[in-house]
Amino acid sequence: MTNRITLCLAGFGNAAQAFCRLLLQQQQYLYKMHQVKVDVTAIAGRSKGALFDPVGIDLSRALEEVAHHGMFSSNNPQLASLTTLGSIQRSHAQVLVELSTLSIENGQPAIQHIEEALCQGMHVITANKGPIAWDFRRLKELADQSGKWLLHETVVMDGAPVFNLVKETLPGCSVTSFKGILNSTTNFILEEMETGMAYEDAVREAQRRGFAEADPSLDVEGWDAAAKTSALLNVLMNGNVTPPEILREGIMKISMEDVKAAQKKNCKIKLLCEGWLENGQPRGRVLPSLVEKNDLFSTIDATSSILSVTTDLMGEICMVERHPEIEQTAYGIYSDLLTLIRKTSK
Amino acid sequence: MTNRITLCLAGFGNAAQAFCRLLLQQQQYLYKMHQVKVDVTAIAGRSKGALFDPVGIDLSRALEEVAHHGMFSSNNPQLASLTTLGSIQRSHAQVLVELSTLSIENGQPAIQHIEEALCQGMHVITANKGPIAWDFRRLKELADQSGKWLLHETVVMDGAPVFNLVKETLPGCSVTSFKGILNSTTNFILEEMETGMAYEDAVREAQRRGFAEADPSLDVEGWDAAAKTSALLNVLMNGNVTPPEILREGIMKISMEDVKAAQKKNCKIKLLCEGWLENGQPRGRVLPSLVEKNDLFSTIDATSSILSVTTDLMGEICMVERHPEIEQTAYGIYSDLLTLIRKTSK
Questions:
Q1: Best of B23, B179, B296, B346 to disrupt the A interface by mutation (most A CBs within 10 Å)?
Q2: What is the pLDDT of residue A105?
Q3: Torsion-angle region of A264 (φ positive above 0: left; ψ -120 to 50: alpha; else: beta)
Q4: Which of A76, B25, B63, B310 has its CA 20 to 30 A from that of A294?
Q5: What pTM does this model have?
Q6: Beta strands B315-322 and A315-322: pairing type?
Q7: Contact A322 B316 (CB under 8 A)
Q8: C-beta atoms of A161 and B165 within 8 A
Q9: pLDDT per residue as tens digits for the range B224-275
Q10: Chain B nearest-CA residue for A163
Q11: SS3 for B140?
């Protein structure tokens, strides 16, 4: 790795934009602490167009154009007529940062982007959970064979370092089970219902506040939580599973009566993600579950999240992320970039 | 570092014994995964006597003798007439594992043990919080100058990786503040008082269960919590403070009326450890504080503990250790040993 690192961004949504703002803010730090200049040389957005410049894209301009017009300007001298795959192939960047929109059916097109990047000799940082939930083992092997890194800290709990917690700070431990609250939309909806709001109104409130998509089915049917459960099984417990293999029940059938019955038992209903070993095989489920009010899990409010990991040698360790914003997602990607710098400069 | 690592243990109390049991259990793993044979070549206990053998001490025998007689047997062929300092000087071990009894007044004799070990060219793993709370900066500089490692994960929250969380998994982040419940004895006593038990009875119950010492003053006066706060300030926030510089109030003055008044406000009283920056300088305090019942901190029960760290780039991350046993302390020391193996084999 030279003292210059070049990035190709696949996707330019909210997380990608926040990451670019953070990069601009951290340029001095990166140069001073790591003697590294980071340049984004390609950006391929689905709806915003593509930018390409081997010398380095003017990120301030790109951010401003998207903020004002929702897409890159036709006057932008770095505008390019490239698909995402074309950008990866043509960019000659050292690192693909995969930020494209998740397709929950099969993890595509992100998987294809990552395959192509590894094929081109690039390292990969993905904030897209699809590839890790659907195809981690194969992609990791591909990366290992190419001597490249596949980093994915942002995939579960934004920048909260749940994967690195196990990998870097619990040496010699095997994860035997985990339990988490990992989907903020359903957590918010269930919390609103506790205050007496009907399910439909709570969904609309989540949409109004920007927590839920126009089509909330990925969240309320538990697909997002299942994808995260699958990713955790694959990475932390050496699994080779996909989201449809996760036992899954969403929150659509939770009625006000259910919520009130839980309250009578001094409990709350939370959408729990769980992983465990069954005859040595990693298994997972996503299920609305009763949690006692004096339990740690019941205090996880709104967009906060928690992951509790049980290991053979160290017992139970929990990590809680409180009230994250998009900046925490940006940090997750940035922390992978710093990890890459540390790993490749040795 | 060769494929053999030799350890000198200063202290042979509960944590040291649990660590030796874990070492025996992990021998195969260490050899298979890291091609390393770990031998303890010296043990210096304060009341149990000393063992010394360059070939390696028979740990099973040592553990059995102490379990049955409270000290090493006079028949033990590895018995030696050595002080702790003498053991460190004579052992020629590669690593000192500092496990001696904490003196809260000044961090001695552990500081002297560590100085001597570094002077002898040894790496140091300390589970004793004294040196980190009292003299971290100087000892770290001493270690850096000698090109040796000074590791201390066990000092706060047993084996829960609070120091490595920041060091290894939050790259580029600066810690701006922290808040924790870090002393289990006081946490247990306050919890018993919530059930209506008088302070004195709660202290006796803690002693009966083995959470509190015969002289509980280190815990109930907040000294243990202050030492941990000082250690966190020194390591995570680049401080250079000592326990007496921590604003400190224990729980001796907490009355049943205080506990009931808190309950009326839907709160609990918890002994909080806090660190923050004041005009750029790290400051700390230990104070019984009101915590709302629906807050994460109020669910930290009995011997569980929590540390919440706020950083510039990643917001607030909390780590919770639930219901640790002595095995978790042993794991903390073992994880430092694995870190040492990883760092020195590169």
A1: B296
A2: 83
A3: alpha
A4: B310
A5: 0.95
A6: antiparallel
A7: yes
A8: yes
A9: 999 999 999 999 999 999 999 999 999 999 999 999 999 999 999 999 999 9
A10: B169
A11: helix
The encoded tokens of residue B301 equal: 């029960």
Average pLDDT of the segment spanning A313-321: 97
Q: What is the pLDDT of residues B150-184, one digit of tens each?
A: 999 999 999 999 999 999 999 999 999 999 999 99
Count Cβ atoms within 10 A of the Cβ of residue B150 and give its class: 0-12 exposed, 13-18 middle, 19 or more buried.
buried
**Tokens at A52, concatenated:** 């390409």
A320 forms beta bridges with A306, B318
Compute CA distances A204 → A47, A184, A208, A216, whole Å. 26, 15, 6, 10
pLDDT surpasses 80 at B346? no
The one-letter amino acid code at A195 reads T
Residues in CB range of A16: below 8 A, 6 or more apart? A9, A43, A45, A97, A99
- Structure tokens that stand for A335 in this block: 């922390």
The vertex-B338 CA angle with B123 and A145, nearest 5°, equals 125
Pairwise CA distance, residues B286 & B276, whole Å: 12
Contact indicator for A34, A343 with CB cutoff of 8 Å: no
Among A88-92, A160-164, A242-246, B153-157, the minimum mean pLDDT is found in: A88-92
CB-CB neighbors (< 8 A) of A296 in chain B: 296, 299-300, 320, 322
Report the C-alpha gap between A322 and B343 in whole angstroms: 32
Q: Please report which confidence band the pLDDT of residue B281 belongs to, taking 50, 70 and 90 as the band edges.
A: very high
Q: What is the ipTM of this complex?
A: 0.94
Residue of chain A minimizing CA distance to B328? A314
Give the distance from residue A147's alpha carbon to the nearest chain B alpha carbon, in angstroms: 17
User: How much is the pLDDT for A1?
Assistant: 46
DSSP count for chain B of H helices, then E strands: 12, 13
* Inter-chain touch A321–B315, beta carbons under 8 Å: yes
